[in-house]
Amino acid sequence: MVCALALVAAYLLGSIPFSFLVARAFGVADVRRVGSGNVGASNVLRSAGKAAGVLALLLDAAKGAAAPLLAAHVLPDQPTVAALAAVAAVLGHMYPLWLRFQGGKGVATGLGAFAPLVPKAVVGATLAFLVTLIATRYVSAGSIVGAVTLAALAFVFGGSSAVAWAAAFTAALVVVRHRSNLQRLWGGSERRAGDAGR
């Protein structure tokens, strides 16, 4: 029962639509109706400015981190629950209750969620994201490479197999959420960082 409640709490934490709320606070009525339509920090940055984008990124990452930390506090002898809570937070961001299950792609929330569980993998994933972004100027490509790197490094640095498999599952979710970006990358129509729109 406590385990189930911890996972529900993690999902609800992940569901808090910080990117939507930050964009609104900075003058964008509905971030889902501008730019890429994604409820995430990158679209907030494009539509509401750098300060809004950074704030949305930090808040989305923070809610991700809060989920496994809360689970670990409530159930300190069950590390698998903390790993599942990380996944639940990402699912909450992707399919938020408060926005009729129309959320973001889970990149910032995923990094935040696994930061307390496998920090070395998160550092490596962040570096992979930045290198890919600088080399290609595609945020989507950086996000996908970062997610896959996180999953791979979680198997190297993870303290438990539950964390590693949770990271792999989360990476798969992130890649699936980027399927339209992959189609545009393949077709050569994906917009680069600094361009208008997606």
Produce the secondary structure layout.
Blueprint: H1 2-15, H2 18-25, H3 41-48, H4 50-74, H5 79-94, H6 107-114, H7 119-136, H8 139-157, H9 161-177, H10 179-187
Helix pairs in contact: 1-4, 1-5, 2-3, 2-4, 3-4, 4-5, 4-6, 5-6, 5-9, 7-8, 8-9
Properties at a glance:
10 helices; 72% helix; 198 residues; mainly alpha
Would you summarize the structure shown here?
This protein is mainly α. It has one domain (2-187).
| Unreliable stretches | none
Shape, please? globular
By DSSP (H or I, 4+ residues per run), the number of helices equals 10
Tell me about the largest β-sheet.
none
DSSP strand count: 0
Structural commentary:
- The protein is mostly helical.
- The chain has one domain.
- 72% of the residues lie in helices and 0% in strands.
- The protein is built from ten helices and no strands.
- Helix 4 packs parallel to helix 6.
- The chain is globular.
- The mean pLDDT is 93.
